[in-house]
Amino acid sequence: MPAYNKLVRDRIPAIIKQQGKHPATIVLTHNEYEHELRNKLNEEVEEYLTASTTEEALEELADIIEVVYALATAHGSSAEQVEQIRANKLAERGGFHDRVFLERVDNDNND
């Protein structure tokens, strides 16, 4: 029987039971949960970076968003507040749509 030792989505234990298997689970403390959400974010980002198709990439991006929303809640906030912060930054600094790559910033003087 494989050991997973990782945070999983809420319905995974029920899905495992439907397959006739018996998952062993625990409920994490708040600090453990936040730590494991950070691990899950790293896992999902790595899966995104190694995705070989657009469909796989989009699946992983959806997983990343789900983890980000859970992290917002763990920090006492919400997905809506994260979205508002994102929108404010977009209005103030722009997004990444123009594909601008900053190489350097030169001084105004000729030093």
Task: Please describe the structure with a list of short key phrases separated by commas or semicolons.
111 residues; mainly alpha; 0% strand; elongated
As a whole number of angstroms, the C-alpha radius of gyration is: 20 Å
Tell me the major beta sheet: none
* Average pLDDT taken over every residue: 96
User: Quaternary state, please?
Assistant: single chain
The structure class reads mainly alpha
What global shape is seen?
elongated
The strand count comes to 0
- Helicity, as a percent range: 55-70%
Question: Which band does the percent of strand residues land in?
Answer: under 5%
Question: Between the first and last Cα atoms, what is the distance in angstroms?
Answer: 66 Å
Please trace the helix and strand order, writing H or E for each element: HHHH
- Stretches where pLDDT is under 50 for at least 5 consecutive residues are none
Separate helix tally: 4
Structure explained in plain terms:
The chain is mostly helical. It contains 4 helices and no strands. Helix 2 packs antiparallel against helix 3 (54-74). It is elongated. The mean pLDDT is 96.
Chart the SSEs and their pairings:
Layout lengths: L11 H7 L11 H20 L4 H21 L4 H15 L18
Q: How do you describe this structure in short?
A:
With 111 residues, the protein is mainly alpha-helical.
